[in-house]
Amino acid sequence: MAWTKQRLNNLFFFIGVAAVVIMLFTFDISFAELWQHLCHAGYWLIPIIGIWIVIYAINAWAWRCIIKGKVSFLRIYLLTITGYALNYATPVGGLGGEPYRIMELSKDIGTERATSSVILYAMMHFLAHFLLWFSTIFLYLALAAIGDLPMTPVIGVIFAAIIVFCLTAFYVLSRGYKNGVAVTIFGWLSHIPGVRGWATRFHESHAEKLRHVDEQIAALHQQDKRAFYSSLALEYLARIVQALEILFMLLLFGVDCGGGFSGITLTFLHSILILSLTTLMANLLGFLPMQLGVQEGGFVVSIAAMGLSAALGIFVSIICRVREIIWIAIGILLMKIK
Is 337 left (phi over 0), alpha (psi -120 to 50) or beta? Predict the structure, then answer.
């Protein structure tokens, strides 16, 4: 078993390394232009990259609220960074990060508890995204009401669709919290060509363990509401803190809505809206490895929607891609640190 886990660890490591190499050679600009953008960012790269130390710490804290085991915060923090690095590096987000977290955390609290805590945290992460998209609609409406942003029938239709989408997700996730999702997931996989045979065999041979995982997910949700809502609040907070990254880049370009405390506050609210729209577009097309092209397009569209230039959107997307590469590299290197 230990040898198998070591081989899987090496597999995840090489996937991460390959992803970093691919990302380095898939920029839509030349290395000379990339260097110009980095020079333009200058010392602002320090807070842009450094803010993720705080974001990952909040993510780890949210996950620790769920784990309920004697696992050190530092270990959870390192697994959080590596897990997200693998998620960025592989198609369909959790294809790499979640299995790796389960494999590593099972050494501390057993496979079933590790599986249930990772699944529940992943669901919490998704729920926080939906909560962000839902709440920022009302943020946009508030800013439109004071004349800061436009409001048109087309925008109204889009918002109505997003509200329906989010409410549907809230219902589906609430059912998953109450009843568990492990059995359901493998039920879906058993109908997908290519993985149908493997999923069916796995479901049949591990049916009892999957039921135990679902029971633990339901128990974690029902028995400790405080931990549940604390984890959700922290995940939502992480999304708000992430908007600081965009704020730093807007300030770098002199976008401060008139300056002063009120101007910077308004710019920060715009940053939250930009983040919300960009992540919505990226997650809707999250099957693409490293979301190549989707994130860039999302930034250009969302920043243009705020009345800013497309050139600024391109700059923000490039710097965010550089930040991703750096943190993926850090996460992959952490896999080899015992």
Answer: beta
Closest CA to 79 of 111, 56, 58, 95: 56
Question: What pLDDT score does 160 carry?
Answer: 93
Nearest to 101 by CA among 20, 93, 212: 93
Give the pLDDT confidence of 232-290 residue by residue, as tens digits: 999 999 999 999 999 998 888 777 877 777 888 999 999 999 899 888 877 776 544 44
Residues counted in the chain: 338
Phi-psi region of 30 (alpha: psi -120 to 50; beta: other; left: phi over 0): beta
Residue 335: CB atoms within 10 Å: 20
CA distance 90 to 83: 11
- pLDDT tens readout for residues 31-84: 566 667 677 777 888 999 999 999 999 999 999 988 876 788 999 999 999 988
Alpha-helical regions (H) of the chain? 2-24, 31-41, 45-67, 73-89, 94-109, 111-145, 153-179, 182-189, 196-205, 207-223, 225-252, 260-284, 294-305, 310-334
Asked if 331 contacts 84 with a C-beta cutoff of 8 angstroms, the reply is yes
* pTM for the structure as a whole: 0.81
Q: Which residues contact 232 (CB under 8 A, 6 or more apart)?
A: 62, 124, 127, 128, 131
- Rounded CA-CA distance 280/321 in Å is 17
Q: Longest C-alpha distance within the chain, in Å?
A: 63
Q: Report the distance separating Cα 66 and Cα 223, nearest Å.
A: 12
Say if CB 87 and CB 94 are below 8 A apart.
yes
